[in-house]
Structures are given as C-alpha cells and as structure tokens.
Design a protein that fits this description.
180 residues; Rna Polymerase Sigma Factor, Chain: A
Length: 180
C-alpha cells in the first residue's frame, strides 16, 4: 500500500470507524485514539499485512479488537489497583508472621505463573485475573475457544503441580483475604 492509497483509505473510513469505536468506548477521545492506533499499525505493517477479506471489514475488526483490548486492559488495571488496596488493608491488620507467609505465597504463585508458556500464562491471567470468559479470550487473542480451553487445562494442571504442597494454604489465604 503506497502513501496515496493509504491516505485515501484513511479519509474514506476514518469517520465511520470513529463512530463505531464510540459505540464501544463511549468516549470520542478514546475512540479517536483507537482508530488512529489501527491506522498507525496498518501503516507500520503495510508490507506484512495480508487482508483476506475486504479492507473495510479488516478495519472494522481491527478497531473492534483495539477497543476491546483497551477495555480489557483498563479492567485488569482497575482490578489490580483494587487488589493492591485490599492487600494493603489486609497487611495493616495482620501480624508480621502472616504478612511474611502471604508474601512467600505470592512469590510462589508468581514464580509458578512465570514458568508457564507465554500463551498459556496470558490465557490463565485473562481468565483468572481479568475474569474474562473463554469466548472473550478467544476473540481478543484470535484463537479458537477449544485452544483457550486446552491452554487453561494445561495451565491449571501445571499450577496444581507446582503449588500442590501449598494449595490448602492458598485457599485459606484467599478466603481470609475476602473477609477483610
């Protein structure tokens, strides 16, 4: 795609893609950013990008994915902030031994997560920490639902194996954390 052709497509589709993104994000400013991101990525990868459908369909799907990824990122960030606040609240109200045990437990979980293969880890985190359904994960990562199910099964099996000796402690830790 040359510069002139790109500019024509940008002018032809920008407004309607912006309107579409607004319906997802409920913010014109964010929508504009997502549409610009899509066009920027398209320009950057113009040599590698193969459009198997119409360009219009490709752009709509790209804007949808970009917008959904942004919303999911926002959701994960908000949940992380909530978790951090809960953790701080929990730590203030417990004795030093429980704090150390909680930190050690978190470190073991983090280590077990980091040992998962990348795609498996991403899917696990989206499901368990991002609270996404398998269909949503499949759509965002452009995978089949069956692949997501298989990767989650693999992740759970590996996590159980790596954390088997502390599973009861983990359950108690998370149960008590919910109470505070």
């Amino acid at each position: 795609m040359d510069e002139r052709s790109f500019e024509q497509h940008f002018k032809a589709y920008f407004r309607e893609l912006l309107a579409y993104a607004c319906t997802i994000l409920k913010s014109e400013e964010l929508a504009e950013e997502m549409v610009q991101n899509v066009f920027f990525k398209l320009w950057q990868k113009r040599e590698q990008t193969m459009v198997h459908t119409s360009l219009k369909a490709y752009l709509y799907r790209s804007v949808h994915n970009e917008s959904m990824n942004y919303l999911k990122h926002l959701q994960v960030r908000n949940q992380h902030q909530l978790h951090a606040m809960q953790q701080q609240s929990y730590e203030r109200g417990t004795d030093p031994a429980a704090q150390i045990q909680g930190k050690e437990l978190e470190e073991r979980i983090r280590k077990a997560l980091n040992e998962l293969p990348e795609q498996c880890r991403i899917i696990f985190q989206m499901s368990r920490f991002g609270e996404m359904k398998y269909r949503e994960i499949a759509d965002v990562l452009q995978l089949s639902v069956k692949t997501v199910e298989n990767q989650m099964g693999k992740a759970l099996q590996v996590m159980r194996g790596k954390l088997a000796d502390v599973l009861v402690t983990i359950i108690i830790f998370f149960f008590t954390q919910k109470l505070f």
